[in-house]
């Protein structure tokens, strides 16, 4: 038995209760049986376990092995500096892990926000006595009292109603408050039944008594909470690419280390010297600075996005937003202002814009009764809030009171003496007012019901009989106003001798008022920018289809004559395949959708390979926000639940801010490729010295600690500077990157490893041999690790890599544009990065502490000049390569 389809008596009987409520003993028994009225939290791994995961992924395991081998080598062959190397590698692991760990709190915050939204206290009838209990103690069969301003604590079937209106937006997404009654409903779903109030919604006006039929996780609210908790974590494209890159590079490094260890063994190298070589190969191949550089780059991007009103809660969301191909946006509060206002009127047989009322004083005077009706026929309360009078109640009625008072002016002498409340069947409301002209009956409601109670219609020329032609004109006017996205109400009145004799009959139809939730002014421009950037926008709303379509046309989201409009009921009957095929439509809108349906749309888009962003502000949006690649919540109108489930929060609730955030996100991906090219370029000059050491039996040109000095020292700030580059002016004029495009593409590998890296390696080895040759060294001559000549030669090799990287950082600012092109703009962080490189290499080469820690020694000015000359040569060759590609038409 569906409780909303039966009578009050049958619903009470089905729950084995009465209108006076349960006894205390029976309530206690049911509490033990059904459990408390809160939803259960899905158990998640302990924080320490999640912390441990950050130090046990594949990338970290390779480094742990390297650190372990270093400590082992120090144990068996002390004094070679292997302990310092092991500590340095452990430090790298810790830095990477700590930077990633803080991202693991999303689910806990979402659940906490859901639980806090439920009310703490509720009035309940227990054995005919009204008592106040904690909401968690409610049980099925309890009879509760609801008043204006209350949150509904459980799913309930109404049994008594007095002008009750409920705001359902947090659960169903519908913008307007809905009237409720106690009559049986023929609706298929309880979500739309007029005799049902749901947990987590709020009472806008009126009073009621209701019997609880579902508590805790069995409520619609609890089911949404369960969906929010169990929705799988969606990794961002950047997270997947970094994971892929880490596995690829770590596997390559390990493979090379093991292979060349075997080669060294075959060549007869001493075991510990061979192990040192293998560890050096691994360390040289693994870009230890990559993860912290990515993290810090994303953190800087979040600061820039915050200045553009987009607060990022999870770092990977920055880049994920930039790769978005589809935005599923709700309507109310995101594309619109979430503020009802009266905009259009039909008076005297013609349409009048609200803005024209100020200049149409005669028209306003002629239709004063309509405006008095709007100002008086309502259930709005006026309260004093910190010395300021404010209206509280249904937003639609507040909007009508606003236009009524503005147009009618002074209403002294008018006061309501009686009321016929809004009723489902009547679809209208009436009030009896005492006025200076005598008693008046004012009525407002749906045109089709008000028409049947009217005998006359008011035109500018005066009253006229309400004949079939007039009815046709009125209905046509209503359709036209509804087509503009307005909610249309009719207003009628008549003089009354006393009481409410005659009820709502023989009235004069005064006119129509159309109300709208206006679109945000910035939205049409933002939608146009999304279209230029190749991003689809799909409206997903709980509102009426006609309203959704009208708003979509106003903001430029729909331009065709017949877009695909799918209702929640139609969606419910679609198979997964049918939904995915429907999503191929060029213009598609979803209306009257439920929470799980919004998440279903997101999942279908993900199955199609789309990168999906979802906007939302209500509890009902939380599962979809979490399921999407990127969840975007409204910071002002959004519920705590939506904010906790989202990755990005719009501080100004402005859809246009999403476009600014996408621009920043796209820049982030471009910038990561820039500093990835920069970081990987230095791997080749770090690997080549070890290969030459084994294959040609020369002194080792570069120590492992010197490699770490580059990867975690000199390269860090310049890489971050590349990560802070401003968005390219054309970034929003290109389509989202291809689904299969890799962060580490073959073009990037070729440029970093086979061109820039080779040039750097050649320069580093040339300068190394220059220093040795200048001092009379000859091939085959052994040098002790503490020999001053050896220390100078390795220092020269290190310095050359740093100098080459200084030139390289300018070359990496754009893959094709010349460094002399001013379109790239300035970058103060870049200058700071270069200064830090020079300061660090000076510390390493010219201070006793640097010499001791890194095994270095001061070098001559001639060596510096040779390294600078090599850097200029690399700059010239790379500029030539870019020029050839630009001429080939690839820019």
Would you mind describing this structure in some detail?
The chain has 891 residues and is an alpha+beta fold. The protein has 4 domains: 1-230, Calcium-transporting ATPase, cytoplasmic transduction domain A; 235-311 and 662-887, Up-down Bundle (Calcium-transporting ATPase, transmembrane domain); 325-338 and 520-628, HAD superfamily/HAD-like (Rossmann fold), CATH 3.40.50.1000; 341-516, 3-Layer(aba) Sandwich (Calcium-transporting ATPase, cytoplasmic domain N), CATH 3.40.1110.10. 49% of the residues lie in helices and 17% in strands. It contains 33 helices and 26 strands. Helix 5 runs parallel beside helix 27. The chain starts with 7 loop residues before the first helix and ends with a helix. Residues 103-108 have low confidence and may be disordered. It is found in: Cell membrane. The chain crosses the membrane at residues 55-73, 85-102, 248-269, 275-299, 743-769, 789-809, 829-846, 852-877. It is a multi-pass membrane protein. Keywords: ATP-binding, Cell membrane, Hydrolase, Membrane, Nucleotide-binding, Translocase, Transmembrane, Transmembrane helix.
Could you tell me the number of beta strands? 26
- Largest sheet descriptor: 9 strands, mixed
Q: Superfamily at the CATH H level of the largest domain?
A: Calcium-transporting ATPase, transmembrane domain
What is the global morphology? elongated
Strand content: 15-25%
User: What oligomeric state is this?
Assistant: single chain
| Average pLDDT reading | 82
- Second rung of CATH, namely the architecture of the largest domain: Up-down Bundle
CATH class of the largest domain: Mainly Alpha
User: Low-confidence segments, ≥5 residues, pLDDT <50?
Assistant: 103-108
Number of separate domains: 4
From the alpha-carbon coordinates, what is the Rg to the nearest angstrom? 36 Å
Tally the helices: what do you get? 33
Q: Give the N-to-C terminal Cα separation.
A: 68 Å
CATH-derived topology of the largest domain: Calcium-transporting ATPase, transmembrane domain
Classify the helix fraction into a percent range.
40-55%
Q: What structural class results from the helix and strand content?
A: alpha+beta
Membrane topology: Multi-pass membrane protein
Protein name: Cation-transporting ATPase F
Keywords: ATP-binding, Cell membrane, Hydrolase, Membrane, Nucleotide-binding, Translocase, Transmembrane, Transmembrane helix
Main location: membrane
């Amino acid at each position: 038995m569906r409780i909303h389809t039966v009578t009050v008596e049958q619903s009470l009987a089905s729950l084995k209760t009465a209108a006076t409520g349960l006894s205390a003993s029976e309530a206690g028994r049911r509490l033990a049986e059904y459990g408390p009225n809160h939803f259960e939290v899905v158990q998640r791994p302990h924080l320490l376990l999640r912390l441990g995961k950050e130090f046990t992924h594949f990338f970290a395991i390779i480094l742990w092995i390297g650190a372990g081998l270093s400590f082992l080598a120090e144990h068996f062959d002390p004094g070679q500096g292997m302990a310092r190397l092991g500590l340095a590698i452990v430090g790298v692991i810790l830095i990477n892990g700590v930077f990633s760990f803080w991202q693991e709190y999303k689910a806990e915050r979402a659940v906490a926000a859901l639980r806090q939204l439920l009310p703490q206290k509720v009035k309940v009838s227990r054995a005919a006595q009204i008592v106040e209990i904690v909401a968690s103690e409610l049980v099925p069969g309890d009879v509760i009292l609801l008043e204006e301003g209350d949150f509904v604590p459980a799913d309930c079937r109404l049994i008594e109603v007095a002008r009750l209106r409920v705001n359902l937006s947090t659960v169903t997404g519908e913008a307007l408050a809905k009237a409720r009654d106690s009559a049986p409903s023929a609706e298929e779903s309880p979500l739309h039944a007029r005799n049902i109030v749901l947990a987590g919604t709020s009472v806008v006006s009126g009073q009621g008594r209701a019997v609880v039929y579902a508590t805790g996780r069995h409520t619609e609210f609890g089911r949404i909470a369960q969906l929010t908790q169990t929705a799988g974590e969606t990794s961002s494209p950047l997270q997947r690419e970094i994971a892929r890159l880490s596995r690829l590079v770590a596997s390559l490094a390990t493979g090379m280390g093991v292979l060349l260890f075997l080669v060294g063994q075959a060549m007869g190298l001493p075991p510990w010297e061979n192990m040192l070589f293998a560890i050096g190969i691994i360390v040289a191949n693994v870009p230890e600075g990559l993860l912290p550089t990515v993290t810090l780059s994303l953190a800087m991007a979040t600061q820039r996005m915050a200045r553009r009103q987009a607060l990022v809660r999870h770092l990977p969301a920055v880049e994920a937003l930039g790769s978005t191909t589809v935005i599923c946006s709700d309507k109310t509060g995101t594309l619109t202002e979430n503020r009802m206002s009266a905009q259009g009127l039909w008076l005297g047989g013609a349409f009048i814009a609200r803005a024209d009322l100020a200049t149409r004083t005669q028209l306003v005077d002629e239709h004063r009764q309509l405006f008095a009706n709007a100002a008086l026929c309502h259930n709005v309360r006026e309260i004093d809030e910190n010395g300021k009078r404010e209206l509280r109640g249904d937003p639609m009625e507040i909007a009508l009171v606003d236009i009524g008072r503005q147009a009618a002016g002074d209403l002294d002498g008018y006061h309501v003496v009686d009321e016929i409340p809004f009723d489902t069947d009547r679809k209208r409301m009436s009030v009896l007012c005492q006025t200076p002209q005598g008693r008046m009956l004012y009525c407002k409601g749906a045109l089709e019901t008000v028409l049947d109670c009217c005998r006359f219609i008011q035109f500018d020329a005066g009253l006229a009989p309400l004949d079939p032609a007039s009815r046709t004109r009125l209905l046509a006017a209503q359709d036209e106003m509804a087509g503009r996205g307005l909610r249309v109400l009719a207003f009628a009145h008549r003089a009354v001798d006393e009481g409410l004799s005659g009820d709502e009959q023989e009235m004069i139809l005064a006119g129509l008022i159309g109300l709208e939730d206006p679109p945000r002014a910035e939205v049409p421009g933002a939608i146009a920018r999304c279209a230029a950037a190749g991003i689809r926008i799909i409206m997903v709303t709980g509102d009426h289809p006609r309203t959704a379509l009208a708003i979509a046309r106003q903001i430029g989201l729909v331009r065709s004559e017949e877009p695909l409009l799918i209702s929640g009921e139609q969606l419910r009957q679609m198979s997964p395949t049918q939904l995915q095929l429907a999503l191929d439509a060029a213009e598609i809108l979803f209306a009257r959708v439920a929470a799980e349906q919004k998440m279903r749309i997101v999942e279908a888009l993900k199955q199609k390979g789309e990168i999906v962003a979802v906007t939302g502000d209500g509890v009902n949006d939380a599962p979809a926000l979490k399921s999407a690649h990127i969840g975007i919540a409204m910071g002002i109108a959004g519920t705590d639940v939506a904010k906790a489930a989202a990755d990005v929060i719009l501080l100004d609730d402005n859809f246009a801010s999403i476009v600014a955030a996408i621009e920043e996100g796209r820049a982030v991906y471009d910038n990561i490729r820039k500093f990835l090219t920069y970081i990987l370029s230095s791997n080749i000059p770090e690997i080549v010295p070890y290969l030459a050491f084994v294959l040609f039996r020369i002194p080792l040109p570069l120590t492992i600690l010197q490699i770490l000095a580059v990867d975690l020292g000199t390269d860090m700030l310049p890489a971050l500077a590349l990560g802070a580059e401003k968005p390219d002016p054309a970034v929003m004029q290109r389509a989202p990157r291809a689904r299969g495009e890799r962060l580490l593409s073959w073009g990037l590998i070729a440029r970093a490893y086979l061109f820039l890296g080779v040039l750097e390696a050649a320069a580093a080895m040339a300068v190394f041999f220059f220093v040795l040759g200048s001092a009379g060294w000859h091939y085959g001559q052994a040098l002790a690790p503490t020999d001053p000549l050896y220390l100078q030669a390795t220092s020269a090799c290190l310095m050359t890599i740093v100098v080459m990287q200084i030139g390289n950082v300018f070359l990496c600012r754009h893959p094709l544009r010349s460094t002399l092109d001013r379109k790239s703009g300035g970058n103060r962080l870049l200058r700071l990065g270069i200064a830090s490189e020079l300061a660090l290499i000076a510390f390493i080469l010219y201070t006793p502490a640097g010499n001791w820690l890194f095994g270095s020694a001061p070098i001559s000015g001639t060596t510096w000049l040779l390294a600078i000359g090599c850097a200029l040569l690399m700059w010239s060759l790379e500029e030539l390569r870019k020029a050839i590609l630009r001429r080939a038409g690839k820019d």
